[in-house]
Amino acid sequence: MARKRIVASFLLLLLSWAESAWGWHWFDPAARRNQKGIDAYRRGEHAAALEQFLSAQGLKPGTPLLKNNTAAALYQLKKYQEALAELASVDDAKLGAARASLHYNLGNIQYRLGQYPQALESYKRSLKFAPDDVQAKKNFELTLKKIREQQQQPQDPQPDGQAEAERQKQKYSAMMQFLNQNEKKQMEKKKRKVSHAQNERDW
């Protein structure tokens, strides 16, 4: 049976939404660079897309739309920590109807980083704003399943680091015991030699 995988698509925020939200127009330099980034992203040229999104951010720093799209390019380049940093600073209250997309994207990044409880919460928030989102529902269910599987796994009584330290300690103790025993044997040999030499002189 094929194992179900998380839907890892990343939702871009398009210029048409920005036009209505912030009064952007197609001739705005930041808007044009954002659009070039979107075009490159859709062609699979994610490094080029990232360059355009960052350039647009230079003109309109802190813009939620541009930070989301920058995170999208970083995500596709597998730079998950950097993508998380971009989205973590976005105020979702400024996104209006796009809040669902923000939390969905955040959930995908957190899942990739192995932050399953945080990812679950992000998908939950996404569904709060878009209850009928099929992808968000699927990812929520798969993440919940992942968490339950981890909880059912037997726990190692000692972290790997502690177990290794204990092995090294035992190895060191065994070595010291061997050296002590060898040293005792050497001392006994010396005592016998001294005693034998004294007996010869007395004779």
Description:
With 203 residues, the chain is mainly α. The chain has helices at 15-22, 29-42, 46-59, 64-76, 80-88, 99-112, 116-129, 134-152, 160-202. The chain starts with 14 loop residues before the first helix and ends with a helix. It folds into 2 domains: 15-152, Alpha Horseshoe (Serine Threonine Protein Phosphatase 5, Tetratricopeptide repeat); 162-203.
Task: Describe the SSE topology.
Blueprint: H1 15-22, H2 29-42, H3 46-59, H4 64-76, H5 80-88, H6 99-112, H7 116-129, H8 134-152, H9 160-202
Helix pairs in contact: 2-3, 3-4, 4-5, 5-6, 6-7, 7-8
Termini Cα gap: 92 Å
The mean pLDDT is 80
What name goes with the CATH superfamily of the largest domain? Tetratricopeptide repeat domain
Number of helices: 9
Tell me the name of the CATH class of the largest domain.
Mainly Alpha
Strand content: under 5%
How many E-type strands? 0
What name is given to the CATH topology of the largest domain? Serine Threonine Protein Phosphatase 5, Tetratricopeptide repeat
The largest β sheet comes out as: none
Spans of at least 5 consecutive residues with low confidence: 15-22
* DSSP helix fraction: over 70%
Oligomer: single chain
Structural class: mainly alpha
The shape is: elongated
Query: N-to-C SSE series?
Result: HHHHHHHHH
Number of domains: 2
Question: What would CATH call the architecture of the largest domain?
Answer: Alpha Horseshoe
Radius of gyration: 32 Å
